[in-house]
Automatic annotation (TrEMBL):
Residues 8-130 form the Longin domain. One of its GO terms (molecular function) is SNAP receptor activity. SMART domains: Longin (SM01270). It comes from Meloidogyne incognita. This is Synaptobrevin-like protein. It is found in: Endomembrane system.
C-alpha cells in the first residue's frame, strides 16, 4: 500500500487555469534517474485532472498501475493524491479532506490566487501528512476499526478450527455433554442427517 504524492492546487475560475500551490512526493520506489520525471508526471496529471473536474467534485482515475484521487472543493481549492491500487479511495478522500481543511486554516483564501509557485506558499504540513498516511491504519480511525473487525473474524474462525482439529468429533462431544437436554441432542442428530441427505441431492 503506497501513497506516492499529495498536491494542493487552486482552480482560478477567472483565468480558467489551475495552479499547483504545494506538493510532497514519496519517490523512493523510483530510480535516481527517473525521480524528477516521475514528479513532473505527477504534477502534470494532477493539473490535468483538476482542470477537467467540476467544482465541487470527487473523482478517482486509474492511470497505469496508479490511481489519481482528486477532490475539488466548492471554493476551488483542490487536493490530489496518487496511490497504488491497494490504497482505498475512501481513505484517500479522508486524507485530502484533512489536508485541504488544514491548508485553508493556515493559509487565507484571499492569498491563494496570488501564489505563483510552491516557493511562494508558506505551508509546511504536507511532509507530515505524507508520512502519517502511508499507514492508513494509524491515521484513519475507520480503517483501524475495519482491520480489527477482520482480525477478529479470523481469530474466531481459527479458534473454532482449532477446537475441531484436536481429534475430538463434534458428534462425540454433543453425546457426552451434560449441558444439552436429550431433545437438543436429538435435534442436532436430525439436523445432521438432513444436511447429509441434502448433500446427496
Amino acid at each position: 500500500m503506497k501513497l506516492l504524492s499529495i498536491m494542493i492546487l487552486h482552480k482560478n475560475p477567472s483565468l480558467g487555469q489551475t495552479r499547483l500551490l504545494k506538493g510532497e512526493y514519496e519517490l523512493g520506489s523510483f530510480s535516481f534517474f527517473t525521480k524528477r520525471n516521475a514528479q513532473e508526471f505527477m504534477q502534470f496529471t494532477a493539473k490535468l485532472v483538476s482542470d477537467r473536474s467540476a467544482t465541487p467534485s470527487r473523482s478517482t482515475i486509474k492511470e497505469g498501475e496508479y490511481f489519481v484521487h482528486c477532490f475539488v472543493r466548492h471554493d476551488s481549492l483542490v487536493g490530489v493524491c496518487l496511490t497504488d491500487e491497494e490504497y482505498q479511495s475512501r481513505v484517500a478522500f479522508a486524507l485530502l479532506n484533512k489536508v485541504l481543511a488544514d491548508f485553508s486554516d493556515r493559509i487565507p483564501q484571499s492569498s491563494w490566487a496570488s501564489i505563483q509557485s510552491e516557493r511562494d506558499c508558506n505551508y509546511d504540513q504536507l511532509p507530515m501528512f505524507l508520512t502519517k498516511w502511508q499507514n492508513p491504519r494509524e491515521a484513519d480511525a475507520l480503517t483501524r476499526v475495519q482491520d480489527e473487525v477482520e482480525e477478529t473474524k479470523v481469530v474466531l474462525h481459527n479458534t473454532m478450527q482449532s477446537v475441531l482439529e484436536r481429534g475430538e468429533k463434534l458428534d462425540d462431544l454433543i453425546k457426552a455433554s451434560e449441558n444439552l437436554s436429550d431433545q437438543s441432542k436429538l435435534f442436532y442428530t436430525q439436523a445432521r442427517k438432513m444436511n447429509k441427505c441434502c448433500n446427496y441431492v
